[in-house]
Specification:
This protein is of the alpha+beta class. The protein has helices spanning 92-105, 116-137, 139-151, 158-164, 166-179, 230-238, 243-249, 264-267, 308-318, 323-337, 341-366, 393-396, 512-521; strands at 16-17, 25-26, 45-50, 53-55, 69-76, 79-88, 182-191, 194-200, 204-210, 216-220, 261-262, 289-295, 301-306, 374-376, 379-386, 409-418, 424-435, 441-445, 470-472. Helix content is 29%, strand content 22%. β7 and β8 form a beta hairpin. α10 (323-337) crosses α11.
Length: 530
């Protein structure tokens, strides 16, 4: 399985590797050396990333465009900086921001004893400086672009330009690739065991902490900046905009975000857009929403930074308002099986993308839309471990036999995927044996957010003194332990497996991981299940 290498630079878009399942994982492309190459990587964190792809009917997933996401995870003395950047219209802006932002926050601007207000101000200023620096970096290209456009005769169509002025048009296209696009950004800063989050756009920051009852408390630390956010709509109304007109004309450009970095066509040219030219000031801004500092003292859990492409894929699979919980449970479950944070992140992203593909293709088939274009966006997950025990360490390093910090007392087993015709599919899926559990999983949200889960579900108690188990597929029901989604859609037909000559049926469920975790829990790592 492909995982991201731990290097001293930000994770850049570029060359693609194809891991198991045919998904293209963004890996580093050997870029030019940057100053951040000398910054130490935070080894308590890891990044998983899968590039965008089209879903073909034959199951292949060709890349639609180069990966535009970036991530960073640096430490500098007692400062830790993490970020996920969801680029659009190219990767120029996301690359620029991932390289420039650390210079504004990790070069002595902050000290461990600084007050929360000073840290928040530093984050606000950093975003402002980075965007202004980007626009300054494209000044010459914008000037050249304007000059070339002035040479084209008015009233001619794009086809005429291409045939009569091929070199000029080619140069204009190259300049547009250089200056166009933008990025959303979610950044987390840990300073003196205090957590601060700054966000523009629709990436998410989730703080997941074990509770005293061995549950998992999930809190979204930022709000989504889009046209469904009431606070953002009110901000646009106060600027004098007609919200319905903005929506109807798609005036915000390539994405629905009301806050972003870059995107000169919207930022510098909004006066030329009919639905936006009545605004008193720039309607689309790069001013981050900043929260903190949340104390991490005594915290056992993990911090998640997820791109829009990841959590929106989860909502496609499980339904609106479910992404935060499903993502946290997936991560907790993988921590049971793996000791590498990067491996946990990569496996989770690949699993979400695989389930998204299966969900979209199955729905298109059921709706009779066999020729519909289905796809997924770049998906990125950054995990910072906050004392959460990976790879079964909680079982081997203590006397505890409780696995409930994974969302339930769970053991994984592998079962062949069943199609609607009752025949095994090409892949296997992970299910869980869910043991008696008493700790809740609680969804929370940032107090100003409007996009967190509408309900606050908790895991039911699987009561009974005996070790009775329940085999479950991973739907988004509250007793799910790893959020695998709807495995079986439509009626299932029974399929009879003929017995062998001794009257035995060949086993088709893989219990190897179940045995491993069971034996670890019961202090018999080398033994067999009894």
């Amino acid at each position: 399985m492909s995982v991201l290498s731990s290097t001293a630079t930000a994770v850049h878009a570029g060359k693609m590797a194809t891991p198991r399942g045919g998904k293209a994982a963004c890996v580093q492309q050997a870029p030019e050396r940057n100053w951040t190459d000398d910054l130490p990587v935070c080894q308590l964190s890891g990044v998983g990333m899968v590039a965008n792809a089209l879903y073909e009917p034959d199951g292949s997933c060709p890349e639609e465009r180069p990966c535009e996401d970036c991530a960073l995870r640096f430490r500098s003395e007692e400062r830790y900086l993490y970020g996920v950047f969801n680029g659009f219209g190219g990767n120029r802006v996301s690359n620029f921001v991932s390289q420039r932002l650390p210079a504004e926050l990790l070069l002595g601007q902050l000290a461990p004893g600084d007050k929360d207000s000073k840290v928040k101000t530093a984050l606000l200023q950093a975003f402002d400086v980075v965007e202004r620096s980007f626009f300054e970096s494209i000044d010459d290209a914008l000037a050249e672009k304007a000059d070339l456009q002035s040479r084209l005769p008015e009233g001619s169509g794009q086809y005429t330009f291409g045939t009569q002025y091929p070199q000029l048009v080619e140069r204009l296209q190259a300049l547009e690739r250089e200056v166009g696009g933008g990025t959303t950004a979610v950044v987390a800063l840990v300073l003196n065991n205090r957590l601060f989050v700054a966000n523009v756009g629709t990436n998410r920051a989730l703080l997941c902490r074990m509770t005293s009852g061995d549950g998992l408390d999930i809190v979204q630390l930022n709000s989504d900046h889009h046209m469904q956010n009431e606070a953002e709509l009110q901000r646009l109304v106060q600027l004098g905009l007609d919200i319905e007109k903005v929506k109807e004309e798609g005036a915000l450009g390539q994405i629905d975000c009301t806050r972003r970095i870059g995107d000169y066509k919207i930022k510098l040219g909004y006066k030329d857009i009919a639905a936006l030219n009545g605004a008193k000031s720039e309607p689309v801004i790069a001013v981050p929403e900043v929260s903190g500092g949340t104390s991490l003292e005594g915290t056992i859990g993990f911090l998640l930074l997820a791109s829009d492409g990841l959590w929106s894929a989860l909502e496609t699979i499980h339904g609106p308002g479910t992404a935060n919980r499903e993502l946290a449970i997936l991560v907790a479950r993988e921590f049971l099986l793996r000791s590498s944070v990067t491996a946990v992140a990569q496996v989770v992203v690949e699993r979400v993308v695989q389930l998204h593909q299966e969900t979209r293709l199955e729905r298109a088939k059921n709706d009779g839309e066999t020729h519909a274009i289905e796809q997924h966006d770049d998906a990125t997950l950054l995990i910072r471990n906050l004392g959460f025990p990976p790879g079964g360490q909680a079982l081997t390093n203590s006397n505890s036999t409780d696995l409930s910090f994974a969302g339930a007392h769970t053991y994984p087993v592998s079962v062949p995927y069943s199609t609607g015709q009752g025949h095994p599919g090409k892949t296997s899926v992970m299910l869980s044996l869910v043991m008696p559990y008493s700790g809740p999983i609680v969804n929370g949200s940032h107090s100003t957010g409007s996009t967190s889960d509408d309900v606050t579900p908790s895991n039911p108690v699987l009561s009974g003194p005996s070790p009775h188990t329940t085999l479950q597929s991973h739907t988004h029901s509250s007793s799910s332990s790893s959020g695998e989604g709807h495995l079986f859609r439509g009626p299932r037909q029974s399929s009879h497996v003929p017995p062998d000559e001794d009257g035995h049926v060949e086993p088709y469920v893989d219990f190897s991981e179940f045995y491993q975790l069971w034996n670890l829990e019961h202090g018999n790592p080398a033994g067999e299940l009894t």
